[in-house]
Model the fold of this input.
Amino acid sequence: MSRTSSQSGGFNAGAWLAVFGYGFRPFFLLAALAALTLMGAWVAVGFGTAWPFELSPAAWHGHEMLFGFVAAAVAGFLLTAVPSWTGSPPLSGAPLAALAALWLAGRIASLPHFAASLPAALVDLSFFPVLGAMLAAPLLRAGKLRNTVFLLLLLVLTSGNLLIRLEWLGMTAGTAGTGVALTVGIVLLMVTVIGGRIVPAFTQNALRRIDPSFAIPPRPFLDRATILLTLLLIPADLALPETFALGALAAVAGLAHALRLAGWGGARTLHDPLLWILHLGYGWIPVALALKAAALLLGAPLGSGWLHALTVGAFSTMILAVMTRAALGHTGRELRAAPATVLAYLLLALAAALRSVAAVLPGAAYLPSVILAGIAWAAAFALFVAVYLPILTRPRPDGRPG
Done:
């Protein structure tokens, strides 16, 4: 394809084939499109659209946010990170297209129409194991045993999905809530591990261009303690729900996350949106855990917003932060946030704040605040699509593969 055609307004066959040149391309785009679709449906229900299904809209919404939106973002990140970790060629072409098609089939299989369908459940459950199988070979060939922990986490995520689908199939009772709690805990652990690598690394690299003497001192004990405390939250959530002990553990884990974040030089990143959004995203973790501790230890009504502070705040913000940065870097573009991207960051922050405090607003204000949060959240990802669709669907401007 000529440079002229790749920069034109249309998308020809060669440009669309570029989508399957690297894992981040289809899956970051699918994550954003899933965000728009899922939140659009959720807002429509909030406005009173009929829901003629036995499966509740809240149950479907929670499942698809985790196994649709978050799953696509996780796949995009790992399919991009593993080649960097191992020096192996990225998954591309027909295998990548097949994996994307499997994710899409899982979304169709997760429509409320198919909640009680065993074949649909099997399709949905297959995505993370297939992704793990595609990642395992390069990790094992390169001897990157430390990073094979992500393969185990993908299997645990599959277990969380299985617990949800079993209840939907009528085979178990009360396991869906356990599945959601397990999945949220694993995603939090992944954000803790990945965020602990990329936030200080990207911050130090960027700030050294301004001040060559700048350094973020390593604190291995705090890093390990934070990861361990976050890991312990998973069985505690399952075995000790709504207890004082869980609240105390959440408080200690939140403090560890806050201390970790405080040492990463966030105050010096305000000039660069691609940096401060990473700090903001990670910062929602100690906020969410503090809210959880306040709810369990003090019975504070505001604490009931902890789950949305974690999911809308930490998970969604970190996903958007990584997608906007990685898509630029891996397509050979300057690491500079467009004005529309900065607006997306601000809208997402507004959505997280509104959704986190909605439960303590006066009764008449609750539903409008939830709907407004949903609209702001969807608008943030709509802006991502507007800015990044050409980036993700066209070849690199420097002509290099990827």
In short: Residues 42 and 78 are 28 Å apart (CA to CA). Residues 197-402 form one domain. The chain has two domains: 27-47+55-173, 197-402.
